[in-house]
Design brief:
Distance between the termini: 63 Å
CATH architecture of the largest domain: 3-Layer(bba) Sandwich
Number of domains: 2
Number of helices: 11
CATH topology of the largest domain: FAD/NAD(P)-binding domain
Structural class: alpha+beta
Number of strands: 20
Oligomer: single chain
Strand content: 25-35%
CATH superfamily of the largest domain: FAD/NAD(P)-binding domain
Strand order of the largest sheet: 6-2-1-10-19-18
Shape: globular
CATH class of the largest domain: Alpha Beta
Helix content: 25-40%
């Protein structure tokens, strides 16, 4: 089959490797420059272990990070690692058309998607495709161009996050707050980060108490974060956000299929979005290998295999549960920003 992968992030590159191992040479389109990425800590959950093991980079990623909840037999449930370690390992020896954008989908007379139009420094050109794979994230342009529905729901909570270059003392810690929200920290060899839920007060109000007040709050509510958060010296290291959930009721139509964040995106409390996306890549690669002459059967198999795994996560996302049940008022000690 002619496979075009729209998006050269971790899920798109993993899919490309898995397809190549099955004798299929996809074309990977990525709008960013080679090697560009946003430095940050990343929690690789066990859901992504099998695909990365098959690609051959899991051991390298584990050596570059810190295991989370390691077991006596040497296994672990997750790895905290600087995301660039994984991205660089996946990019090695993989052909990718960097600095190219997918600008349009080409349709046959019956409406089937049969190719793409891409644009780069040398101009525009068209590529034939039996399947266009959308790996271009929550705000997927491919999904939009294909006319596949996405349900986007704002969470009831906002988030306050920080990142520092000071490694924490633990790879992971999390605690629940009096209003049902949570506070957590992630540590890796080169740095650490933290996150917590707060009320939707807006960026100005969330940052108004200042860096020292925030560090005191984090250390008090989650003592395991003390070393990592000590590296926060400026509000430029702190972010306020209002996360959203995203789900696509249907993941494919003739000629195009959604995987990873283009198909589903979860609240920050679950920590599973990218791991499940890597699992999507493995399932789709195997479905294509088992249906070499039938792209629709491949996409149908992929959806049949993955729905029983993905849909329960969507239904039981803790953020979604709080949306449905309604939150409670936090205790004064947990409240942010503090009551004046």
């Amino acid at each position: 089959m002619n496979i075009v992968i729209a998006g050269g992030g971790m899920v798109g590159m993993t899919l490309a490797h898995l397809l190549r191992r099955r004798g299929v040479e996809p074309v990977v389109i990525e709008r960013m420059k080679a090697g560009d990425y946003v430095p940050r800590g990343y929690m690789l959950g066990y859901q992504g272990f099998d695909p990365l093991q098959e690609v051959g980079v899991l051991d390298e990623v584990r050596r570059g990070g810190w295991d989370i909840a390691p077991r006596e037999d040497g296994s672990t449930v997750a790895v905290a690692v600087e995301v660039g370690i994984l991205l660089h390992a996946l990019a090695r020896d993989l052909p990718v058309e960097y600095e190219h954008s997918l600008t349009d989908l080409i349709r046959a007379e019956d409406g089937r998607i049969v190719g793409v139009r891409i644009e780069g420094a040398a101009g525009s050109r068209e590529l034939e495709a039996d399947i266009v794979v959308a790996c271009d994230g929550v705000a997927s342009r491919v999904r939009e161009m294909a006319g596949l529905e996405a349900r986007i729901e704002p969470l009831a909570d906002a988030t306050l996050t920080w990142m520092s270059s000071t490694p924490g003392e633990v790879s992971f810690a999390m605690a629940y707050l009096s209003d049902g929200g949570h506070i957590g920290t992630l540590g890796w060899p080169q740095g650490s980060a933290g996150w917590r839920t707060i009320e939707k007060v807006g960026e100005d109000a969330a940052l108004a108490p200042g860096v020292e007040a925030m560090k005191e709050m984090w250390t008090r509510l989650l003592p395991e974060s003390a070393k990592g958060v000590s590296g926060v010296t400026s509000l430029e290291q702190v972010r306020y956000g209002e996360p959203r959930l995203m789900s696509a009721p249907v993941w494919w139509k003739p000629g195009v299929v959604l995987i990873g964040d283009s198909a589903h995106f979860f609240g920050p409390e679950t920590g599973v979005s990218s791991g499940l996306g890597l699992g999507d890549a493995q399932a789709l690669a195997e479905a294509i290998a088992q249906n070499p002459g039938d792209p629709d059967a491949a996409c149908q198999s992929y959806e049949t295999w993955r729905a029983p795994i993905i849909r329960p996560y969507e239904a039981m996302d803790p953020g979604r549960q709080r949306m449905q049940t309604g939150g409670t008022t936090p205790s004064p000690a947990d409240r942010w920003p503090p009551a004046s």
